[in-house]
Amino acid sequence: MAVRYCAALLLVLSCLFSVSYASLGDADPTYRTCVAECERNGCIGQVCFPQCNSSSSSGGPWYTQEPLYLQWQKLGCQGDCRYHCMVNREKERESLGHVPVKYHGKWPFKRVLGIQEPASVAFSVLNLAMHFHGWLSFFITLYYKLPLKQDKTAYYEYVGLWHMYGLLSMNSWFWSAVFHSRDVDITERLDYSSAIAVLGFSLILAILRTFDVRVEAARVMVSAPILAFVTTHILYINFYKLDYGWNMIVCVTMGVAQLLLWARWAAVSRHPSSWKLWVVVVAGGLAMLLEIYDFPPYEGYFDAHSIWHAITIPLTVLWWSFIRDDAEFRTSSLLKKSKTKAK
């Protein structure tokens, strides 16, 4: 049960990449004074930021505002003031022997080319690449390595579902990379929405595969209520209220449900590659310890969350390997049945 619980929490964190609560750093009077003076004077010591004195910081016509790429990178007055005040304050704290603290819900990361969390971005991109590689290899296996029906379609009954899963997963990791690059309201909502979408669809896929639902009408009956709920939830958090507590309940429910489904199926089925499923579940649960025992970024880059992103890379490779094995297993079984009937 401990493994199941940890793995469920892992799914929750996929939905809650970035809850920005008040932190010790941004409550520090020295830091707050630094930011306030910087926004007022446009300088921190000898370093000054011209954008703090520009007309763009006070609103006005569109042609007087900051260029879009600067708004995106948050290299405006507030963003630069917060970042440099944080860097200076952390240097002071380090000289006094204090450990790093979070600012606005995040550890004091070092920027690289304007990217807020470079390690998490890099690992998110690698996860996206592994999903693309897995999805492409799944496609090649189906249509170039396995036998096809006379109409050139695959024997495997879950082709469309896994294709959709691959696309939603790649979309989710794309927005994860974008969000870790720049934490603003729109990137946070897109990250949440894409994670919830893939989680909800994964639940549908888990039900259909583990219960071997192949009749189209039955698939619609199973999928429709879940799709309706997930769509309503995404609309709720985007256009009504981004309720972190309610979002957590939704993610926990869907995560635990599909986890139990896959675990039950792996235990009772005679699938030749069920061990791969167990490895993904157990390793994912152990990786969750990195999120429980959070720690500051090493050298300003590698924190527990970014390392968790790194661990999911080989797990993604193994997961898609299981999916390919499942396609081969089902195709082989169906061919044997058809040959038996022919006799």
Task: Please give a structural write-up.
- By secondary structure, this protein is mainly alpha-helical.
- It has 2 domains: 2-20 and 114-342, Up-down Bundle (Rhopdopsin 7-helix transmembrane proteins); 24-95, no CATH class.
- 70% of the residues lie in helices and 1% in strands.
- It has a two-stranded antiparallel ribbon.
- Helix 1 (2-15) packs across helix 11.
- The protein is elongated, with a radius of gyration of 24 Å.
- The protein starts with a helix and ends with a helix.
Q: How would you briefly describe this protein structure?
A:
The chain has about 350 residues and is an all-alpha fold. About 70% of the residues lie in helices and about 0% in strands.
CATH architecture of the largest domain: Up-down Bundle
- Supply the CATH class of the largest domain: Mainly Alpha
Task: Tally the helices.
Answer: 13
Relative helix content: 55-70%
- Largest sheet, spatial ordering of strands: 1-2
- Which residue ranges are poorly predicted, with pLDDT under 50 across at least 5 consecutive positions? 1-14, 16-21, 55-59
Percent of sequence in beta strands: under 5%
Order of SSEs, N→C? Answer: HHHEEHHHHHHHHHH
Question: What count of structural domains?
Answer: 2
Structural shape: elongated
Round the Cα radius of gyration to an integer and report it: 24 Å
Protein structure class: mainly alpha
Family: Belongs to the PGAP3 family.
Transmembrane segments: 121-143, 155-178, 190-208, 220-239, 245-263, 275-293, 305-323
GO biological process, one term: GPI anchor biosynthetic process
GO molecular function: hydrolase activity, acting on ester bonds
